Amino acid sequence: MRNFDLAPLYRATVGFDQIADMMDRVLSSDVTQPTYPPYNIEKTADDAYRISIAVAGFAGSDLSVEVKEGALVVSARKAEDDNDRTYLHRGIATRAFERRFQLADHVRVTGASHADGMLHIELVREMPEALRPRRIAIASGDAVEKDVIDAANVN
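Request: output the structure for the sequence above.
Response:
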């Protein structure tokens, strides 16, 4: 895999260090990326998303969903109460995990649900009013002159 030097990005920009750090993480040659538990990320509307994580064997009380430092952190820890059971084959993994998803600016978590062995986390992107496009009304030349003349008559 290629290594990219992002030092010029740090030298030439101000305030984009989050993007450079994220690119560093993504482009790193770390092959030990966690694959457990499997998950899907789907776009449910123009500004809505859903993360679905397979959490078979975990109860809702074993799961934790938090947003901290711009990241969604999903973790699970199963209480060990299987001491009295003897398994001939154990194919359902219930080992502890922590999965992180970096959230973009203005993306917030609106809810989470746990059903049928799946944890669904709903997200929505909410653009602040200041960043939304605005249409500026264009006044005709006559209206501007009329206002100036009216103001002169009043004074």
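The chain is about 20% helix and 30% strand.
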